[in-house]
Amino acid sequence: MDSLTSLMSGFETALTPLNLLWALIGVTLGTLVGVLPGIGPALTVALLLPVTAKLPPVSAFIMFAGIYYGGMFGGSTTSILLNTPGESASIITALEGNKMARKGRAAAALATAAIGSFIAGTIGTLLLTFAAPAIADIAVQITPSAKFALIMLAFVTISATFGGSPLRGLLSLFLGLGIGLVGTDLQSGQARFAMGRPELLDGIDFITVVIGLFAIGETLYVASRLRKGKFNVIKLEGGAVMSKEDWRRSWGPWLRGTALGFPFGAIPAGGAEIPTFLSYTLEKRLSKHPEEFGNGAIEGVAGPEAANNASAAGVLVPLLTLGLPTSATAAILLAAFQQYGLQPGPLLFITNGDLVWGLIASLYIGNVMLLALNLPLAPVWARLLLIPRPFLYAGILVFSTVGVYSLNNSVFDLGLLALFGVIGYGMRRFDFPVTPAIIGVVLGPTAEAQFRTALQQSNGDFSIFVRQPFTAFLMLCALAALVVPQILKFRAARRAA
């Protein structure tokens, strides 16, 4: 009952005219950036961080949440009509949805994706409403050594999940950890990796890092490939609609996808990629029409899209209760909290309950807005795919540069932006995942602080990380997440040989 009372209070906050306006702006922007290929909610939130610094925290996070959910809705349009998944979680949607579109069933594919996203998002938000306070109550009792072990588990699982190679994921993580160490050590007062530059004594601004790696890196990568391949957008006439047969074949995958997506989003295991593939495999096995899979099966769109959006709600559970981001967008949201001097975790529900519950209530409202925007206006969103990419990415480049310069009015920051842009391009070019680097930058200082606190409490005794059962269990899980997949891969290679 406490959760329901708090949620009602959150609706009072979210339903004010100003916050409703920010929610509408957020879901509209989110759908827009989800539709445009190569631009996702993580990049958009990062670009808006300098602009929203003066907004009230509740309004800013209501808008960010709308962008997050809207990006999940809009991404299906690109996958279905352009066969270009904006994120790895949309690969399955592109596989089946584009085949449906080529058969003249684009409207049905877009409708099942939008309605499935709405159902999964609503159920996921409902689970978030009741799960988050319970986890927050437990999280208050977690010791610093266990928090450090939990962060290590997140580091390992996210690095091993994103990208095709665990080694590349770990190298990306170490890059982020190194960037996070730049600046003055608060305990000893010594400068670390500052290279004699006074501008680096306060560390490197997270916004500069993330805009450089995401926005500039992506712009350079797209510019280098603009002449490679043509984009064939399938035309859409009328709104997104479904027949009775489509409804009959979709409702089961929607529910099963939601059941798979939420728990995978809530654990530090890499976001939505795994549940979307699991959902696709499950629907193929359960389907009465398995011959349609690979040729445009509606279940292959409904299930993965539901899993994708349910995982988005699940990602907010560890972010709000433990301060642990499990995706790139969650890492940037964590940086947004820190921008306002807030630290997500169990105490956030006590110290800033109006913000947390206003944010959760806005997710219900945003889901309704997104359904209203995506079903009747599907042809409008489809036309956005015709925007020439050079114009689009040139605008991103200008907006990124102005946003970073406005932080401190510093030319040095622009130099750092260019440097991280080149690094981001290299990571995209050689298939190094960017997400582990971003999470390393955000969580690295927190991991260091928890490690030091644990050692101070144990008088420098390192055995505290194996003596406490819960801490030892988490450390073993981190080790298993790193070693077990390699053993399985080695055994599979031997069998193949």
UniProtKB/TrEMBL annotation:
Residues 20-439 form the DUF112 domain. Keywords: Membrane, Transmembrane, Transmembrane helix. InterPro entries: DUF112_TM (IPR002823). Pfam families: TctA (PF01970). The chain crosses the membrane at residues 20-49, 61-82, 106-136, 148-167, 203-223, 315-337, 357-378, 390-407, 470-488. PANTHER family: TRICARBOXYLIC TRANSPORT PROTEIN (PTHR35342:SF5). This is Tripartite tricarboxylate transporter permease.
